[in-house]
Amino acid sequence: MTPVHSVCLLRLSAIGDTCNAAAIVQAIRNWYPEAQITWVIGKAEASLMDGMPGVNLVVFDKSRGLAAYRSLYRSLRGQRFDVLLVMQVALRASLASLCIAARRRIGFDRAKSKELHGLVVNERIEPTTAPHVLDNFRQFQKAIGVPLTPPLWDIPLSDDDRQWADAQLDQSRERHLIIIPAASNPERNWLPARYAAVADFASDQGFAVYLCGGPGEFEKALAKDIQGRTKAPIHNLVGQSSLKQLFSLIGQVQVVIAPDTGPAHMAVAAGTPVIGLYAHSNPARTGPYLWQDYVVDAYTPALQEIRGESPSQTRWGQRLKGKELMGRITTEQVCKTLQRCMRDQNL
């Protein structure tokens, strides 16, 4: 296969998907250490990936509308890449790809293409039977001759990020657990009373418990609600960290509990066990890649009940809707999974 001297990767969002994409960027960088690597990425996501050695991040700020496309075109004008990896099928990404000149334009296989994706590529990755998003992303590295070795993330952190995380840790406890209660879609959030019950259980097991998340008012209100229901003292850090600081803190704790949200994938990248709470999307596709054994899966029984299908029978990416679905996950299930994680990880 012809060596690659310049590659542009287009994956704009979201946090979880860009964490998955980071493993592809690192694999390419390690296999082609002399190659010029450019990553077109969303604004928030770039704040997490900033500082990756040998990788030029070009920020696409979707909030700027048409100006974002003009800025992208100006940033890359005059450059022609050996390869463009179009790793997102949203219309926004397809339009953004038209601002990038490349000889080879590699996209998803036909079964996973939509929103004009097939019109902006001239090659496609090999289909894979593996359902996970990361396994599908890995087909992009394979398409340019990079072997499918175990994924590595290596998201860089500064000393300041690590010091911030150190300062948050409760020194009276030896074990630490983070709960990320809020997802971007509120339907994916678990019940506040059950989060609180699990927090109390974890505290009884000797963990210092932290609530973490973004600065949105809904996230802050949810955290306050949970904190008001707990008997044990818990540390509410919601809205108080940057993504880099949160990633550093996640890397220093023993367990993370989260629904289908970006920080669950940040925990995978940091090497921290994740107990994933899933009811609306297939955890085998979007769950924490290295910690599938600790997923509390309400999706599979709900899919069978609602659509009469198993995950292997339904279409890739099939989501379920309904505010009541997360209520199928019980406190007992999560506590038992935490106990199993503690035994497995010698916590």
Tell me about this structure.
It is a single chain. The chain is α/β, with parallel strands linked by helices and 347 residues long. It folds into two domains: 138 residues, Glycogen Phosphorylase B (Rossmann fold, 3-Layer(aba) Sandwich), CATH 3.40.50; 185 residues, Rossmann fold (3-Layer(aba) Sandwich), CATH 3.40.50. It is built from 13 helices and twelve strands. The strands form two sheets. The chain has a six-stranded parallel sheet with strand order 3-2-1-4-5-6, with helices on both faces. The chain has a six-stranded parallel sheet with strand order 9-8-7-10-11-12. The longest helix is centred in the N-terminal third of the chain and has 17 residues. The protein is globular. The model has no long low-confidence stretch (mean pLDDT 97).
